[in-house]
Design brief:
- The protein has 92 residues and is mainly α.
- The protein has a domain at 36-92.
- Helices cover 68% and strands 0% of the residues.
- It has helices at residues 11-32, 40-49, 55-67, 74-91.
- The radius of gyration is 22 Å and the shape is flat.
- It holds the Pfam family FlgM.
- Keywords: Bacterial flagellum biogenesis, Cell projection, Cilium, Flagellum, Repressor, Transcription, Transcription regulation.
- One of its GO terms (biological process) is negative regulation of DNA-templated transcription.
- This is Negative regulator of flagellin synthesis.
């Protein structure tokens, strides 16, 4: 089963685009003299905190799985995987 195609998917182009964005942002900041810059400390703290977690729901799911009460529907899982992948394929 092939998940990703064979060959280069244009990784170099992504790096090029990121570089262009960085240069254009720095150029606009240099011109204005008062560029808005996010505080890296706040961003790092937000990322370190991670996404919100519902511990009660996680505990209930773990218990249901351990007791064999959690229904697994392979068709539903496959449909969701395909639905999530289709926008990515359309963007390429």
């Amino acid at each position: 089963m092939m998940i990703d195609g064979v060959g280069n998917k244009g990784v170099g182009q992504i790096g090029l685009q990121r570089g262009q964005v960085s240069r254009s942002q720095s150029a606009s900041n240099d011109r204005s003299g008062q560029g808005i810059v996010a505080a890296p400390g706040n961003l790092l703290a937000d990322l370190a905190a991670g996404p919100p977690v519902n511990a009660e729901k996680i505990a209930a799911l773990k218990a249901a799985i351990a007791e064999g009460r959690y229904p697994v529907d392979p068709d539903k899982i496959a449909e969701r995987m395909i639905a999530l992948d289709l926008p990515l394929q359309a963007a390429q």
